[in-house]
Amino acid sequence: MRTLTFSVDGMRCRRCVRRATALVRDVDGVHAVTADAGSGLLTVRGTMSDIDIVRSLRNTNFTARLIDEEPKPELGT
C-alpha cells in the first residue's frame, strides 16, 4: 500500500473538497482519501497509480501535481 500526496490547484472550498474526493474515490485501488481546502493538499492511500489520480481530475477545474509518495519506490527495481 502506498500513500500519495498531491497539491491540487483549484481546490479552495468545502464544495471543491467534496467534488475532488468523490472523483478520486472512484479510482481503482483507492482505499482512503483526505483533502484540505486550506492547504490545497489531497492525500490518497491505496494501490493506485499517481497517473490514475491525475487523470481522475482531468476535465475539471482542478490540476493535481504529485508532491510526495510513501513508501518511496526503490531505485533499480
Task: Note down, in words, how this protein is organized.
The chain has 2 helices and 4 strands. The chain is of the alpha+beta class and 77 residues long. It has a 4-stranded antiparallel beta sheet with strand order 2-3-1-4, covered by helices on one side.
Summarize the structure.
The chain has 77 residues and is an alpha+beta fold.
User: How many helix segments?
Assistant: 2
Strand content: 35-45%
What is the architecture at the second tier of CATH? 2-Layer Sandwich
- Which consecutive residue ranges, at least 5 long each, have pLDDT under 50? none
- The CATH topology is Alpha-Beta Plaits
Compressed to H and E, one letter per element, the order equals EHEEHE
Describe the global form: globular
Which key terms come to mind for this protein?
globular; 25% helix; 2 helices; 4 strands; single chain; four-stranded antiparallel sheet; alpha+beta; 77 residues; Alpha-Beta Plaits
